[in-house]
Every structure is written in C-alpha cells, then in structure tokens.
Design goal:
Blueprint lengths: L12 H15 L2 H10 L5 H22 L6 E3 L3 H13 L3 H19 L3 H8 L2 H22 L3 E4 L3 E4 L5 H18 L5 H15 L25 H4 L5 H26 L8 H20 L4 E3 L3 H6 L5 H10 L7 H5 L3 H16 L10 H17 L2 H18 L8 H15 L2
Antiparallel strand pairs: 1-4, 2-3
Helix pairs in contact: 1-14, 2-3, 2-4, 3-12, 3-14, 4-7, 5-11, 5-12, 7-16, 7-17, 7-18, 8-9, 8-16, 9-16, 11-12, 17-18, 18-19
C-alpha cells in the first residue's frame, strides 16, 4: 500500500475501501444507462454491458495506479447520447465509423495531454463558453430522455407536443423521473441507481415489464463490438469537427469534474499539479481504449465526490471502485430486464444538473450572452453537440467584431468560428 502514500494523505486502508465502495454505489447506474443509450445505435446490448463494465474497471484502475487520485472513471454521459442520436441516427453514420471518431479523438487527447497544447486549450476558451457547452449538453441529453420516454412526441403541426400521460409506460417513466428528483433533492448518495431499482420493481410487480427468470449469468462476449471501429471512414476532413467536439467535450468534462472534486478534497494545487496532469493522462489513454473496446469516451465521474466525502484521498479509492465493477459483469439478465423507461428519466435529471452551469455565466458580456443562447438551444434543436458549439463560436466571433473588440477573440474561438464557416457554408 506504500504506492498510494496513505500516511502522507492522512487516510487509512479502511477509509479508502469504504470510499471506493461508496463511489461504486453512486455510479452503478452507468452500466444499464450507457448500454441502453448506445444500443439505440444498433450495437448489441449484451456486449455493451460487458464493454461498459470493462472500461469502467480499466479506466478507474489506471487512474488509481497512475495518478493516485480518488477519481473513478467510466463512459461519459452526453457523448454517448450524441454518438447514438446525433451521429448514427442523426447523420446516418455507421456505428463502426462513430467508434473510429472516438478512437481518433482519444489519440489527439493523448497527444495533447502530454504537450503544452493541453494548457493552451484550457486557458484560451473562455470559461463562460465552457459552461454554456456543459449546459447545452445537459439540454440535449434531457431532451433525448423526454423524447425516448415519450413524455414529448412528434407533432406535424408544432413539431413537438406533450405525450400521452395515460399510457402505462409513460406513467412508469414519470414515476422514475419523480423518484430520481426526490432522491437527488434528498441528497441520497445512490439516488439515480435507487430510482432505477424502484421504477424497475414497480414495472415488474404490476406486469408492465417481464420479470427475468434469473439475475446472474456469465459475462457476455465483447466480440461483436470490440475492435470493430472503422478508422479509415472516420479519418476524413468532413468529420474533423466531430472528432474535435469529442476531444473538447471530454477534456472540459474531465476538467470540470476534477475542479469540483479536487477543490473539495484539496487534491490539486495549481495548474501544474502532477496529480492533475496524470489524471488527465489516464482519462486520455482510457478514451483511446474505449474506441477499441466498442464504447464512447471515458471521463472522470462527478460521483467520485461521494467517495471523497467518505474520506477517500488516494488512488486506492479508485482501485476499489474499479474492482467492485467486476461484479456487474455477472448480472447481465438483471440489466437486460430493466425497462427503458426506468433509464431515460435519469438522462433528464443529469441534464438538469448540467444545465445549472448557466447560473455562473456572465450575461453582461454580450458576446457571451448571445453565444450561450445559440449553444444551449442549438444542441437540442439541431440534435447535434457539434452544430450547437459551432453556432455559438460563430456568433461569439461576430459579436466581438461588431463591438470592435476582435482582438479579444482567443485563438481557440477563432479556430472554432473558422471551422463553423467551413462546415456550414463549404462542406
């Protein structure tokens, strides 16, 4: 245990184990949720359960051993929805090509994490734009949750309208939403998973969904999705913006989580903190492996805060969390029996949490105000994180030019604006 430097971090093995188990319970929901979302792209659900568990195990172990921080990692929310509903269903992209996009973004992430470019990207994109992106992704995945649970449905006159709340399946989704909100407001550490469990039990008890014959089985094979990525099709100029969106979103998501959790536990001191750098490197390496394994980008999970609150201060917490996820490999029948309408309400709640970033945006800055509007509304309305961000960058640059403050447009925002012009008017 000396490698974790427990004494230096004023912690013990018992504390770290409890913290790791707490984080595991808090983020257990990602296994059924991620598999359900990615299966909408046509990928086999069984293989996704295994791949999600495997990447959660590997990424958490990697970070715990390499960075020695109590940050657990898994497949990130937001980009998985964009993968299925934005790229595959929205753009008609084959899921193999979309996995190629994930892999290429991972390679860029690894390269950037080891160079000064990482710091340049972090510092040159305005913080308010990062917050707008987080809120926009929140709006996007919340919209997907509302749509897939049939709380809102298509309408030929108004494009969208309220769903049929007399339908028993919609009512089950509403129950899941209210439970998730209730447990979240009460600050239960396993609020989302508890909501899924109670909604699922309700569906089984009232015959809305079929109760499985067994809950345990051997792990499903990853062969149908592992190493099935199509890098050649993804390596095109037209998909470069998509690759960059995966890269930027993953980087910002991780940095946001590390900032929040790190401040709480005083893990990182300064932008040149070695633990911070190594955690980013672990996330980058895991993201590259994700494309090979058949899932979307990994990221640091905010649920790690639950373990930190229990006293977790070292990588042993993340290692314990990763090892606990080995158990999920043997519960495929249980995960398959969870109704989708117990899953999609979770997207709505997570979307609300991400949307709350807007409270910190400086609306006195007109460029920020207009860019935020187009980013946040653009992502769900265009069904694309890429288009929403590029719209916002273009508007940001335009307002700065009109104001005569074009010198204040950072290099990163200038590049995004130029990419937007290329994508919208040339490609």
């Amino acid at each position: 245990m000396n490698c974790f430097k427990l004494k230096e971090h004023n912690t013990t093995v018992g504390t770290e184990v409890r913290a790791g188990m707490t984080t595991f319970i808090a983020m257990l929901y990602i296994i059924p949720v991620n598999a359900s979302i990615l299966s909408a792209s046509g990928m086999p659900y069984d293989a996704l359960i295994t791949a999600t568990a495997v990447m959660t195990i590997l990424s958490s172990l990697l970070n715990g051993l390499w960075a020695n921080t109590p940050i657990a990692m898994s497949v990130g929310m937001g980009l998985n929805a964009y993968f299925s509903f934005g790229l595959v269903k929205g753009m008609g992209m084959a899921w193999q090509t979309a996995l190629g996009v994930v892999f290429l973004s991972g390679i860029l992430y690894v390269l950037i994490s080891m160079t000064p470019i990482r710091r340049w990207m972090i510092e040159t994109i305005p913080m308010d734009i990062k917050r707008a992106v987080s809120a926009g992704i929140g709006a996007f995945i919340a919209f997907i949750g509302l749509e897939e649970s049939k709380m809102v449905v298509a309408d030929p006159s108004t494009l969208l309208t309220i769903g049929n709340f007399k339908d028993i399946h919609v009512l089950l989704a509403l129950l899941g939403l209210f439970l998730a909100l209730f447990f979240t407001l009460k600050r239960y550490k396993s609020a989302l998973m508890l909501s899924i469990l109670l909604t699922t039990l309700t569906g089984w008890i009232f015959g809305i969904e079929k109760l499985p014959d067994t809950f345990v089985s051997l792990p499903a094979s990853m062969a149908p999705i592992a190493f099935k990525l199509d890098i050649v099709s993804a390596f095109t100029l037209s998909l470069l913006p998509v690759v960059l969106i995966f890269l930027i979103t993953d980087l910002f998501d991780t940095l946001g989580t590390l900032t929040g959790v790190g401040m709480r536990a005083n893990l990182f001191k300064g932008k040149d903190s070695v633990p911070l750098q190594r955690t980013i490197e672990a996330d980058a390496a895991a993201t590259m492996l994700s494309g090979l394994a058949g899932v979307t980008s990994t990221t640091a999970f905010i649920e790690s805060a639950a373990g930190v609150e229990e006293g977790g201060r070292t990588g042993l917490t993340a290692v314990v969390t990763g090892l606990m996820f080995v158990l999920t490999l043997f519960f495929l029948p249980f995960f398959k029996a969870i109704p989708s309408n117990a899953i999609y309400p979770i997207l709505i709640v997570i979307g609300v949490m991400m949307f709350s970033e807007l409270q910190h945006v400086n609306y006195e800055d007109r460029a920020v105000k207009f860019a935020t509007f187009f980013i946040v509304l653009g992502m769900p309305l265009t069904y694309s994180i890429t288009d929403g961000l590029l719209l916002g960058a273009l508007v940001f640059a335009f307002v700065r030019i009109v104001e005569g403050r074009y010198r204040e447009i950072s290099m990163a925002m200038s590049i995004l604006a130029l990419v937007a012009l290329l994508v919208f008017f040339v490609l």
